Amino acid sequence: xxNPVSSHRLEHFSVIPNKTTxxxxxxxxxxxxxxxxxxxxxxALSQLAGAQAQTGAWTWVGGSSTLPGTNxxxxxxxxxxxxxxxGNIPGGREGAVIWSDGSGNFWLFGGFGSDSVGSNSGSLNDxxxxxxxxxxxxxxxGSSTLGGFGRPGIYGALGVPAxxxxxxxRDEGVSWTDSEGNLWLFGGAxxxxxxxxxxxxxxxxxxxxxxxxxxxxxxxxxxNSSGYGGQxxxxxxxxxPAxxxxxxxRDxxxxxxDTSGNFWLFGGMGYDSVGAxxxxxxxxxxxxxxxxxxxxxGSxxxGSNSNQxxxxxxxxIPAAxxxxxxRRVATAWTxxxGNFWLFGGFGSxxxxxxxxxxxxxxxxxxxxxxxxGGSTGQGQSGDYGTIGIASTGNFPGARASSLSWTDTxxxxxxxxxxxxxxxxERGDLDxxxxxxxFNQEWTWIGGNNTxxxxxxxxxxxxxxxxxxxxxxRGLVRNLRAGPTRKAISGSLEEMAMLRxxxxxxxxxxxxxxxxxxxxxxxxxxxxxxRRVRTARRRP
Length: 539
What we know:
It is built from one helix and 30 strands. It is globular, with a radius of gyration of 21 Å. It has one helix at 22-29; strands at residues 45-52, 57-63, 93-94, 97-100, 106-114, 121-131, 136-141, 170-171, 174-177, 183-191, 197-207, 212-217, 229-230, 250-251, 254-257, 263-271, 277-287, 292-297, 327-328, 331-334, 340-348, 353-363, 368-373, 399-400, 403-406, 412-420, 426-436, 441-446, 472-474, 492-498. Strand 5 and strand 6 form a beta hairpin. It starts with 21 loop residues before the first helix and ends in a 41-residue tail after the last strand.
């Protein structure tokens, strides 16, 4: 699909990116400049992977390259609480939440996976810190064992930090980092204060300096203690903040932080204002200074089909009436102009539900959405073009659960996900794409344009010892060396080491976006995204 550059884009960029081929840019500045910690949920395997930015070649740098068995994951090595050690490592998991703090450390919380015993999987509530300088993990909070299938939350008093407080086990929540370096967590699928499972809407703050959690809002209990449920949302008046406002319980939403330090939340699978469950398309803003939520856009109900359709308007033209359809496990970025971008996911296009490849931009100043590319339908195959060559005709296929980040040049990147390849086949993807938000061109950078006969490409592993001192970590996968996933059921955790082209340009809450953690489809169950311990359907 051709994507003409609309006039409203010009005001968002103080520096226009050079229109060179991406491969030329790789040789001169390095392939990816990311400051983020990404947990790839592709199996239950604890694995470290790395990338040498100057060559564009991903390299595996540690952990196991094999799973202990089908639908099993490597157990965690916790060590002593609060003490870093070279042998420590979180267990294999999926759907964790992540942050970066003001000192450049990376933090990991929860997810669905393996504890220190590793005999079964469940909702984890362990908190980990990775020191980039020493490359050592530290178990900071939470339990090293599941205690069954997940630990309940210890909430304490609302708004009061305490050493005994800790969120319940969960996966697919969302996270933010505030201007003071505190870590924030919202919702997800997990355990409340009573140990009941469901869609949570609790809001937590973690202070890395004190090492204490604070329950900041939302409910500490689910409305149905005997089955899977979630609290309905309290929307209030559109555009008006209020102390009583709170999003409904949900998981698999996406999040952003704006230039004023406000937190934003969009969509996910969860509960609307009347307690109906479905794919949401509501947009929320949270002001950490006032502690108040504001419903900013979208519908406060999921509609009769549990999926609000998108209102696309005219391609490239923002309008007050435009809004993406309800969806979950989408991909999100923030560009250099402070605008929010949304791509794909599983949900509703203009009418029917399915895997999406529509691209949206939201301007937090004008509060308007613009449909910027992709299809208004579902199940669209990818248009890859020539590897390394940008083109207006290129476009990734429909997918969910991709990884995302932004580089220092303002380009947006996505990797993999579960969706459609160039031939219209659906499976686990290992393709890497770059999007230039100024000229609206996609470039296929690496990986395969087909999924392979097993519904997903197998991994290729090697080893690299990093020499430069300027290193940081993010969870990514093999890029150019070929296939990048293990064609086996289970959940996979990968970490990568990259060298930034210009470390000084990177900031925690500046021109980077922290990617969400994806849910992964088991390749041997292509029609139902289900977890072993529940009957919840996932894309």
